[in-house]
């Protein structure tokens, strides 16, 4: 299986939105209120792309998933009810969405792995993320990848579970 993780391009927008829209509908069908408030929307994704924060996972030539990855940019994380593992620089992963054709194949875990490698290449030793309490797929992904529950944060009026993985410094990396 050929897999590439790269920055999203404006030309990817239609496929990215198809994936995001599928994820929104899937969360609703599961009875969740996550992503049921008009967020994310096409403008959010376009902004991610324009700020070089949007990334796609391309598998066998087609876009299989989308995520936004930014450095130190999540104001809600400053007001955690709990405690982060680290206080330094971090990458944050948001808006992970997997296409209907690729669900259940460990794609979200691959995205988290790419984010971790990206962090290490930048000399950053922490990756943070959050999710709804009822997002079983992401909770499993965080558990499998060794993320630790750190507390609650509030985004757009909703409490969410916050996780962090402290990355080990590997000499020569």
TrEMBL record:
Keywords, in A-Z order: Acyltransferase, Transferase
N-acetyltransferase domain: residues covered: 3-170
Matches recorded under SUPFAM superfamilies: Acyl-CoA N-acyltransferases (Nat) (SSF55729)
Pfam families per UniProt: Acetyltransf_1
Record-linked CDD domains: NAT_SF
Protein name (Swiss-Prot/TrEMBL): GNAT family N-acetyltransferase
TM segment ranges: none
Source organism of this protein record: Mucilaginibacter pallidiroseus
Gene3D superfamilies, per the entry: 3.40.630.30
Lineage of origin: Bacteria, Pseudomonadati, Bacteroidota, Sphingobacteriia, Sphingobacteriales
Single GO MF annotation: acyltransferase activity, transferring groups other than amino-acyl groups
Stretches assigned to coiled coil: none
Keyword 4Fe-4S: no
């Amino acid at each position: 299986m050929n897999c590439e993780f790269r920055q999203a391009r404006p030309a990817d927008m239609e496929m990215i939105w198809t994936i995001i829209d599928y994820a929104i509908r899937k969360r609703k069908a599961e009875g969740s209120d996550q992503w049921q408030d008009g967020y994310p929307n096409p403008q959010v994704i376009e902004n991610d792309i324009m700020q070089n924060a949007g990334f796609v996972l391309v598998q066998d030539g087609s876009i299989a998933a989308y995520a936004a990855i930014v450095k130190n940019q999540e104001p809600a994380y400053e007001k955690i009810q709990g405690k982060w593992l680290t206080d330094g620089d971090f990458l944050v992963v948001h808006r992970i969405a997997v296409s209907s054709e690729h669900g259940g194949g460990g794609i979200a875990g691959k995205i988290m792995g790419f984010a971790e490698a990206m962090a290490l290449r930048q000399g950053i030793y922490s990756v943070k993320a959050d999710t709804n309490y009822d997002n079983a797929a992401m909770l499993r992904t965080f558990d499998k990848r060794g993320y630790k529950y750190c507390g609650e944060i509030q985004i757009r009026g909703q409490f969410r579970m916050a996780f962090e993985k402290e990355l080990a410094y590997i000499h020569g990396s």
